[in-house]
């Protein structure tokens, strides 16, 4: 699975990590839905850290992304506009 963090690049995660990724994404969705600023910051940082723990795809390579995350400096208000009922990660 390839995940892009906008403004940063792409990361490859093993397909078997999808369930874990969805758990972290669910925490983010809950914090955004509750308008919980601190919970949002914690959950979004955890989501980005999880993705960054994957293998960085060299900038010279371009792959279709399975998921695209907003930049790390995104605000709760910006995230509220982006997030759907399924979170940022489909599945």
Structural overview:
This protein is an alpha+beta fold and 91 residues long. The chain is 43% helix and 14% strand. It has helices spanning 18-33, 37-52, 76-82, and strands spanning 2-5, 9-12, 55-56, 67-69. The chain has a 4-stranded mixed beta sheet, covered by helices on one side. Helix 1 packs antiparallel against helix 2. The termini are close together. The model has no long low-confidence stretch (mean pLDDT 91).
Briefly characterize the structure.
The chain has 91 residues and is an alpha+beta fold. The chain has 3 helices and 4 strands, in the order ββααββα. Helix 1 packs antiparallel against helix 2.
- Side by side, the strands of the main sheet go 3-2-1-4
Contiguous uncertain segments of 5+ residues: none
Give the overall shape, derived from the CA principal axes. globular
Report how far the terminal alpha carbons are from each other.
Answer: 12 Å
- Work out the helix count: 3
